[in-house]
Amino acid sequence: MSTYENRGFFYFTSNPLHGRWFDLDPDTTEEVIRAALAKELNNGQEIDELFIADSEGFATYFCSRECFDFAEWEDFLEGLESTHLDHEVIMAYLENCGSASISDIEDSYLGEWDSDEAFAEDLMEQTGDLDKLPDNLRYYFDYEKYARDLMINDFFESNGHYFRNC
Prior knowledge:
The chain is an alpha+beta fold. The protein has seven helices and eight strands; from the N terminus they run E-E-H-E-E-E-H-H-H-E-H-H-H-E-E. The chain has helices at 30-41, 70-82, 87-97, 102-108, 116-127, 135-138, 143-153; strands spanning 7-12, 19-23, 50-56, 63-64, 67-68, 109-112, 155-158, 161-164. Strands 2-1-3 form a three-stranded antiparallel sheet, with helices on one face. Strands 6-8-7 form a three-stranded antiparallel sheet. It has a two-stranded antiparallel sheet with strand order 4-5. Helix 5 packs across helix 7. It is elongated.
């Protein structure tokens, strides 16, 4: 399983010089970051506002307008510990949909295929929809066009991984 380094550059005031990088693991809470910045850069005084200037890894998808959603991040990390999904699959989803819970990603993930057409063929076999056509017409079914239509409305692909749309 590949790993992603989850880090964020947090700062206070309106000056990113009053900040530093933090590893964003389960032990690094908002309170821990505030306390560390207060001690290291603010003479121990409490920090009112906390901002994020940059991030790496999964954490990138939990940032919005210089704010970091610690509650969603903590929920995400809890799910990450118990999921069967590879980190590559999770990143493929996040790159297309933004922040999400692990359970949402698990519910949306369908598997890995070599092409949209292979995905469409497998979907037809699983649903049994092709069996509803008379035998003499099955030969004419166009998987390429069917796959194109599936990918327009209902599904997306990222690095060979297929998901239901966000």
